[in-house]
Amino acid sequence: SLIRLSDYRAPAWRVGKIELAFDLGIDATEVTSRLHLQRDPTQEESLRLDGEGLELLSISLDGHALSDDAWRYADNVLEVDGARDGSVLETRVRVQPAANTALEGLYLSGSREAGFLLTQCEAEGFRHITFFPDRPDVLTSYTVTLRADRERFPVLLAGGNPDGSGELEGGRHWARFVDPHPKPSYLFALVAGRLQKITHDYTTHSGRKVQLLIWAEPDAIGQCGYAMDALVRSMRWDEDTYGREYDLDVFHVVATHDFNMGAMENKGLNIFNAKYLLADPDSSTDDEYRAVEAVVAHEYFHNWSGNRVTCRDWFQLSLKEGLTVFREQQFSADMNSAPLKRIEDVALLRRAQFPEDAGPLAHPVRPAQYSEINNFYTATVYEKGSELVRMVAGHLGREGFRRGMDLYFSRNDGRAATLEDFLGALGEANHIDLMPYLAWYAQAGTPRLTARGHYDAAHRSFTLTLSQHTPPTPHQPTKQPLPIPVKLALFDREGRMMPLHVAGDGAEASGGTERVIVLDRAEQSFVFQQVASAPVPSLLRGFSAPVILECDYSPEELALLLRHDVDGFNRWEAGQQLAARAFDNLRDGNATQALDAWCDALAALFGATAIDDALLADLLTPPSEIELAERERVVDPSHVHALRLKLQEHLALRIGRETLQQRYDALAEHTSAQLDALSQAHRRLKRRVLDLMASIDPWHAHTLATLQYDNAPSMTDRLAALAVLVRGNAAQAHAALLHFRERYADNPLAMDKWFSVQTQLPADAVIERVQSLEQDAAFTLKNPNRVNALFGAWARGNPDGFHRPDGTGYQLLATRLQQLDALNPQVAARLATAFNGWQRLEPTRHAAARAAIDALAAQTQLSRNLGEIVRSMQHG
Ligand code: ARG
Ligand code: ZN
After folding, report:
1. Residue 123, preceding bond cis, omega within 30 degrees?
2. Where are the transmembrane segments (predicted)?
């Protein structure tokens, strides 16, 4: 049953007000709901409410119990006769939180004895709690009463402002919450259990006093301080940057170890996967700290981009997710280093989104149809969606974008909006037609941008010809040209930027060194005048559009940009392009020009003093195996793995043992657990240098790694050392792993890293290790983080170790997917996307992967989630 964007119809019934009461219990919770119904007079439809797995205890309409022939509950729909505009429907249902392993709706986190109850409703979890028109365009005012045993559930929380609490008979108590802002059901949340809190008094720019509360289980409350700090900075930033303030008296944030996704922006009660909330130096890496900062900001920013302005339907998901990822990226860039953030984001886009867009699961940022909406919380909707917002923001400029966002927020406040509303408001505020960008939302696939330059010495002119082409994707054989903004600069052969004079430019626009040209046809030429010598164009600066650039640079030209480009991002980008060419050199074995240019340029930069250590670390990192594989027509993951190692070996040798050792020693000298940018940069470079050393002198590197492991003051250093040992030396790794297991046995997030790091074993040993780790007492298929730490890290993070030619990797994953699907369909479906790219595998692996996927597809019990992914994999 496919849901189609083109089938959208406004709801026939709305709910002005809902009064919810919960009698909470771990095995059984009873939910009473009173819906104040509103009928759309132009539609005839009878009242139909969503409800899944609900045990209906009683039902009444306008105070009278309904007779059995006045309602029907089948196929997850409750149909009720006789409802009128203004009617009040009361239902009482029972649900079973402890039996809910799908972690959707109301469920138990942790043990029966010590765990707590919580909800996850996006996208369609509310229908697992009560009967309701469970769609984002039904906005309702919520009054929620929670009742529970006081000893077992001392803390009772729901979204909105507190509205009283008190004692009940038999050791029970109650608490009520009223949310003054009408909201869709996917933003409902409650939490109940033995939680502890930290608080902070925050005053908004306009003077509203807000109490911020972060809640966690007793053993984790000490790790919430950094999240509170990030929350306060996020709130201030949104006020300063977008003029957006928080709008309730309280803001709750809760950490749980049992969560399907990263976090959830429930109104006034954000719930986080502990992985993105808890942090301390002893158990979190620098990258994890930055992830906490980013996700705290992301969920907070949703209060405006998502909650105050929500989505009309789930096809518009990127309206809130793409926009919020973009806002979060801006925030992170402001808090840290902007070029490093851009490098991280583009690397993620290339690793996660480009392969998705090139494979059987490719879909537009606004999909045209889906079977299971939870399968569309993808890198395309999130990351590519953010890139589309970035293009539009770049088009409008800083002030213009702010003007447009102001209009978008004010015009759509309290509404369920569409992408047309978004582009319309941004455009109108700036008297620009942005609707051509809608094509980006509707078209799947990554455009290839080809650039050719021609220098005419006689006329001192440079002609840049740009053309675009998007390969076909499933269900979308033909593609149209898209507007592609290309930010560029021209460099002379000494590495200096040249003034730009574009033919037809007004004089005032002329003369800068950087500008944006927009390609909006299949092919177009741009002429630059007064160009003193043949230039090297630096194209797509800052990654101004999410495309694959094909430009026939010579290795020398790329090396020039790598050495001289002033923009950190573009310098890195030139290095990535050059590394990819160096990879081709090694693969084809017929030239070493690019390899030499790459190694020489980096060896020179390695000695330079002016360069930031963190940027240097990124420059020294070749594209990932996944990115390199994307460039191949036929993929042999082992070959890609081996060649990438060779690439690093060449680089390490060119820099030289001595030089690497000196740098490592210098960096190891001021080792600390401090979190300032400089300390983080040192650790990042140290890790990279140790990796490079391991590629040429493994024994020596393992000795250093063992020392580093033993003396590490932070998880960043400890885990970096452990990773080197695991990849290279069984005996030393064994000792360190035993120590780690012992030390962190009670820390689930650290234990996840213990599982993950072992999935990076060399290909010949990793499957056996994965199978033995499954037997570890700490492993369980019921915890999504643990599943991802083992199976996700292996299948996605170790391509060589997953794609075994004999197909044993595929069989193992397929078997576990089937077991996992019975427990948690969302997590199973997401893990199954690890098969992406199988069609381009070399013949032996191709056949083995096909067999495993076909066998999985032949299972009759598959959930709608996993079923949709597997079928797309097969036929995509
Ligand atoms: N809206 C959440 C976010 O901030 C994601 C929740 C998605 N949950 C799900 N089950 N699909 O990105
Ligand atoms: Zn989000």
Report:
1. yes
2. none
- Report the C-alpha gap between 46 and 49 in whole angstroms: 10
**C-alpha 29: how far from its chain's center?**
33
Nearest to 287 by CA among 724, 675, 568, 615: 675
pLDDT of residue 510: 58
Most distant CA pair in the chain: distance in Å? 95
Which residue in 94, 97, 100, 87 sits closest to 34, CA to CA? 87
The separation between CA 629 and the C-alpha centre of its own chain, rounded to angstroms, equals 22
Mutate to test the pocket of ligand 1, among 276, 316, 377, 827 (most ligand atoms within 8 A of CB): 377
Q: How many residues does the chain have?
A: 876
Alpha-carbon gap, residue 505 to 514, rounded angstroms: 14
End-to-end Cα spacing for the chain: 17
Say if CB 722 and CB 757 are below 8 A apart: yes
Token couple for 795: 């299948």
Report the relative pairing of strands 415-417 and 309-311 from DSSP bridges: parallel
Which of 104, 234, 264 to mutate for ligand 1's pocket (most ligand atoms within 8 Å of CB)? 264
ipTM above 0.90 for this complex: yes
- Distances in Å between the alpha carbon of 362 and those of 175, 687, 810, 848? 46, 35, 21, 22
- Do strands 269-273 and 250-256 pair parallel, antiparallel, or not at all (unpaired)? parallel
Please say whether the beta carbons of 335 and 362 come within 8 A. Answer: no
Q: Is residue 112 exposed (0-12), middle (13-18) or buried (19+ Cβ within 10 Å)?
A: exposed
Residues contacting 394, CB < 8 A, separation 6+: 485, 487, 516, 544
pTM over 0.90: yes
Question: Cα 862–863–866 angle (5° rounding)?
Answer: 80
Task: Supply the DSSP symbol for 841.
Answer: B
Active-site residue 299, yes or no?
yes
Rounded distance between C-alpha atoms, residue 572 and residue 593, angstroms:
19
Alpha-carbon distance of 695 to 682, in angstroms, equals 20
Going by alpha carbons, the residue nearest to atom 1 of ligand 1 is 264
DSSP one-letter string for 158-183: ESSEEEEEEE-GGGEEEEEEEEEEEE
Per the CB < 8 A criterion, the answer to whether 119 and 105 are in contact is yes
- Among 256, 1, 37, smallest CA distance to 785 is for 256
Structure tokens at 715: 């998880």
Query: Which residue's alpha carbon is at the smallest distance from atom 7 of ligand 1?
Result: 122
Sheet holding 71-74, edge to edge: 47-50, 77-80, 71-74
Tell me, what's the pLDDT at 505? 62
User: According to the model, what pLDDT value does residue 503 have?
Assistant: 80
Does 265 sit in the ligand 1 pocket, CB within 6 Å? yes
- One-letter amino acid for residue 202 of the chain: Y
Contact 441, 419 (CB under 8 A): yes
Ligand nearest to the CA of 270: 1
CA distance 353 to 547: 11
Amino acid code (one letter) for 278: L
Report which ligand 1 atom has the smallest distance to the Cα of 302: 4
DSSP assignment string, 98-135: GG--S--EEEEES-TTT-EEEEE-TTTTGGGTS-B--S
| Among the bound ligands, the one closest to the CA of 186 | 1
- CB burial string 610-634: b at 16+ within 10 A, e below: eebbbbbbbbbbbbbbbbbbbeeee
**Ranges of the chain with pLDDT below 50:** 507-508
Per DSSP, which regions of 12-139 are E strands? 13-23, 29-39, 47-50, 55-61, 64-65, 71-74, 77-80, 88-95, 105-109, 116-120
Exposure string of 34-60, with b = 16+ CB inside 10 Å and e = fewer, is bbbbbbeeeeeeebebbbbebeeeebe
Residue 508: predicted pLDDT: 46
CB atoms within 10 A of CB 797: 16
